[in-house]
From TrEMBL:
This is Alkylhydroperoxidase family enzyme. It comes from Natrarchaeobaculum sulfurireducens. Residues 55-115 form the Carboxymuconolactone decarboxylase-like domain. Transmembrane segments: none annotated. The keyword Oxidoreductase applies. One of its GO terms (molecular function) is peroxiredoxin activity. It comes from the Archaea. Keywords: Oxidoreductase, Peroxidase.
């Protein structure tokens, strides 16, 4: 049970209520989904919605790092899933397994992250996972940085850091406030997919 009450959509001004809903559902029709995971109104946004200005600011920043990181959708989701996994936040993992699948990622690519088998990924994606692991642990060294720099330019590396940092901060908020999943956890091994 969450440590603070979620915002009630009816308590928000009508023009702000859509801030509580996921943006990622907009691009995929339900009949085109290859899984049963759903988006809709999310508890993460209902939590942040207790302060509408905070929710709006977070959604703006999150959208910027999501869209402007310099990463493809698969690379972006690799960074977010690796952040969720290494930060041990089931909520982010669950939500972004859905997004990754909607973006066309193969479940085996997702499992390579949670099973700590990055050699099953393309070299640039394996470098992303290795970098994010060290980033989450505050241990990025020259070797890790250079490995990522072999595949990405400086602007994209900055985007990786901003994206992972955004989701790491969100992970800590979700954990501190014990924000509930909306439905059964998909599982680190996707056992409930």
């Amino acid at each position: 049970m969450a440590r603070i009450d979620y915002a009630n959509p009816e308590g928000l001004p009508a023009e702000k209520r859509d801030l509580l809903d996921t943006l990622s559902d907009a691009d995929v029709d339900d009949d085109e989904r290859s899984h049963s995971l759903e988006g809709g109104t999310l508890n993460v946004y209902r939590t942040l919605g207790r302060t509408v200005a905070l929710l709006e600011g977070f959604r703006g920043y999150g959208s910027t790092v999501w869209l402007e990181s310099g990463l493809s959708p698969h690379e972006r989701e690799t960074v977010i899933l690796a952040t969720a996994y290494y930060a041990d936040t089931a909520y982010e993992w669950h939500q972004h397994v859905r997004v990754a699948l909607d973006e066309g990622m193969d479940p085996e690519e997702i499992l390579a992250i949670s099973r700590e088998e990055p050699d099953r990924l393309e070299p640039e994606r394996a470098a992303l996972v290795a970098y994010v692991e060290r980033f989450v642990d505050d241990e990025v060294d020259d070797e890790t940085h250079e490995r990522l720099a072999d595949h990405y330019d400086e602007e994209t590396i900055l985007g990786v850091c901003a994206l992972s940092g955004c989701y790491l901060g969100l992970a800590r908020l979700l954990q501190a406030l014990e924000v509930d999943l909306e439905n059964e956890f998909v599982g680190w091994d996707l056992e409930n997919l």
